């Protein structure tokens, strides 16, 4: 009887999502298409976005007549460590 539940699970319970998917596809295919709105319907509004996107400020361009680029930051050097000596304990 121990193998019955495994076969039941594989043969019946795991088929429920597949059956639901098939039903959803069948329902979507059976649904009549929605007619598209024509240009004379009077629906809709202006095509422009009422809130235009604000572009971030662009960095200044450097050229022959512009200020030179700022100098690079100074480098930090770390002193080299001495040789590692194992503890003799």
Characteristics:
mainly alpha; 2 helices; 89 residues; 0% strand; single chain
Summarize the entry for a quick read:
This protein is 28% helix and 0% strand. With 89 residues, the chain is mainly alpha-helical.
Q: Would you write up a description of this structure?
A:
The longest helix is centred in the first third of the chain and has 15 residues, at 16-30. The protein has a domain at 2-31. Helix content is 28%, strand content 0%. It is mainly alpha-helical and 89 residues long.
Question: Topology of this structure?
Answer:
Elements: H1 2-11, H2 16-30
The Cα radius of gyration reads: 36 Å
SSE series: HH
Question: What's the β-strand tally?
Answer: 0
The rounded distance between the terminal residues' Cα atoms is 66 Å
Mean pLDDT: 78
List low-confidence stretches: none
The major sheet is characterized as: none
- Number of helical stretches of at least 4 residues: 2
């Amino acid at each position: 009887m121990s193998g019955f539940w495994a076969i039941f699970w594989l043969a019946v319970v795991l088929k429920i999502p597949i059956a639901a998917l098939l039903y959803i596809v069948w329902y979507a295919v059976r649904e009549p298409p929605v007619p598209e709105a024509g240009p004379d319907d009077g629906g809709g509004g202006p095509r422009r976005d009422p809130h235009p996107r604000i572009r971030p400020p662009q960095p200044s361009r450097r050229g022959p007549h512009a200020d030179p680029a700022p100098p690079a930051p100074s480098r930090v050097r770390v002193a080299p460590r001495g040789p590692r000596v194992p503890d003799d304990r």
